[in-house]
Amino acid sequence: MTQDQGMTGFNILLNAALNKSTAFTEEERDRLKLRGLLPASVGSQATQIERVLENLRRKDSDIERYIALMALMGRNERLFYRTLMDHIDEFMPIVYTPTVGQACREFAHIFRQPRGFYITPQDRGRIRSILDNWPTDDVRVIVVTDGQRILGLGDLGANGMGIPIGKLSLYVACAGIQPNQCLPVMLDVGTNNKELREDSLYLGVRRERLEGDAYDELIEEFVMAVQDKFPRALIQFEDFLTPNAYRLLNAYRDRVLCFNDDIQGTASVALAGVYASTRISGIDFSDLTIMFLGAGSAATGIADLMVEAFKDKGMSEEQARRRLWFVDINGLVVKSRDDLAEHNLPYAHDHKPLSFAQAVKEIKPHVLIGATGAPGAFTQDIVASMAKINERPVIFALSNPTSRAECTAEQAYIWSKGRVIFSSGSPFAPVTLNGKTYAPGQGNNAYIFPGIGLGAVICEAKHICEDMFLAAAKKLAEQVTQEDLKKGSVYPPLNAIRNASLEIAKAVAQVAYDQGLANAPRPQALEQAIADYMYDPYY
Ligand code: NAD
User: Cβ neighbours of residue 130 under 8 Å, at least 6 residues apart?
Assistant: First the structure.
């Protein structure tokens, strides 16, 4: 954004979207009545970044860096985004997982400035009218949570607002969604976390969670209010408890423009990693047997998309499901069990019950994917079994944050004697074993959701369909170079993410145009149209 919206003087310095601080030129200082309000030296954005980095790097902890970065976002948006974009490896783990997990836990204690939109049960009947309080009309991406299952950290109530804020900053940094078109939303329906309710600084509604019909009705009112106020907005459901996540996705996916990142975004990024892993293992995707530890929303979402991926290779739905096995806290998911949730039933096989360790040995998966939130679930015995069965075992420990990963990168490499193709949900530092350094990629949803959002914004999608996530996974896997694979990564480097998002957006928009799911006409030069839209924080 270059126009100053007619604002002058001190107000410009207080407006994060317009403020350039010491980078205002001599001419701008005269024209915008900034004389006297700034120190004499006119600095470039690069000099400002140098100062920001110096300040961030001398802080003692990542949570302090998080606080400083959020403050920068509130002061000088373009400087914040350029810092994040140019140093995405360093700062994505701060503005998103793992540090955002700590930021959410401590949200009420580190709170400085309200950001985003809060809706409570008291707003029943007036959600549409309070949305008018939001300062802009052209919102295109909404990330909404009710804070009940924040990362792997459980019910954090209104503290969960850190997640929509963090995710939307990645929509901007990774895909160039315009910041003023983003809206973080907290559906603060209370919390069952007693400790939080009793925290004197807690900022949310101090009551047990709203549930049942009243909960569904509040969500329905919110979704419909969004349709009226922001008709082109994509709603991303985020970190809802699994049964709610499924119910809401199923209730709204065909009615409005929405998706669930924990289910569908995770699926797409994991599928991309598995696609890329076959280039190392040499095993054809259609020949894979895949086992999941954890049978919740993340794992089931991945399996559902894998069914589509197998079908894409010419298999029937039934043949596809036979390649996919689940183990949960009670063992192998089999037909004879009577404790299964509805979303488990399509994957419950006719097989005798087995423990996890037995299941790995007997079913012999090529790929093992953990989405449990249970640290240490991939023991030495499990990793060694995978390495015995496979020349190049594929092991993804997806649970977030880092402290919840099913095993660490180091354990996976050591226990498999360096043969594992490893990936994780949160980042791990490179591992050196017998003189070889492995830099495992992070199966970070940020490779997928920003591109999905960008594609949806460009074509003004009516709905988000599974084919879009399949197309996104293929596109992401294509971005992985031989050099990435050699380093042990099944994902491109994070600093290539903007280009990956653009490619994914193109693929997503193509699916929308081809399937009649786009409201906007197909542009003559799609790639150019996307590039022209993308937010540019440089000044
Ligand atoms: P969920 O609560 O819906 O499911 C958890 C599942 O794990 C349940 O089926 C449960 O039975 C099983 N489980 C728990 N402990 C277990 C154990 N010790 N052994 C076997 N099974 C066990 O949660 P979810 O939404 O599916 O998320 C699970 C994890 O996946 C979270 O930690 C989350 O951070 C992670 N996740 C990662 C990504 C990513 O990396 N891209 C994306 C989304 C979710």
Answer: 119, 123
For the chain, domain boundaries: 3-83, 94-256, 264-445
Q: What is the pTM of this model?
A: 0.93
| Sign of the Cα pseudo-torsion (435, 436, 439, 443, in order) | negative
Atom of ligand 1 nearest to the CA of 401: 34
As given in the structure block, the two tokens for residue 72 are 């920068």
Contacts of 290 (CB under 8 A, 6+ apart): 274, 303, 306, 323, 324, 325, 365, 366, 367, 368, 369
Q: Decide if pLDDT at 2 tops 70.
A: no
Task: Identify residue 392 by its one-letter amino acid code.
Answer: R
Residues belonging to the active site? 96, 167
State the Cα–Cα distance between residues 297 and 332, nearest whole angstrom.
17
Say if residue 1's pLDDT is above 70: no
232 CA distance to ligand 1 centroid (A)? 32
Q: Residue 15, by phi and psi: left (phi above 0), alpha (psi -120 to 50) or beta? A: beta
The DSSP output letter for 494 is G
**For the structural domain made of 94-256, what CATH number should be given?**
3.40.50.10380
Query: Does residue 148's CB lie within 6 angstroms of at least one atom of ligand 1?
Result: no
What's the CA gap between 82 and 128, in Å, rounded?
34
Query: In which order are the strands placed within the sheet that holds 117-119?
Result: 117-119, 182-187, 141-145, 234-237, 258-260
Give tens-digit pLDDT for 127-160: 999 999 999 999 999 999 999 999 878 999 999 9
CA dihedral 478, 480, 482, 488 (to 10 degrees): -140
266 close to ligand 1 (CB < 6 Angstrom): yes
Paired tokens of 42: 């006119």
Q: Kindly report, residue by residue over 338-372, the tens digit of the pLDDT.
A: 999 999 999 999 999 999 999 999 999 999 999 99
**Ligand 1 touching residue 399 (CB < 6 A):** yes
From the DSSP assignment, how many helices (H) and strands (E) are in the chain?
24, 14
Which CATH fold would you assign to the domain 3-83? Hemocyanin, N-terminal domain (1.20.1370)
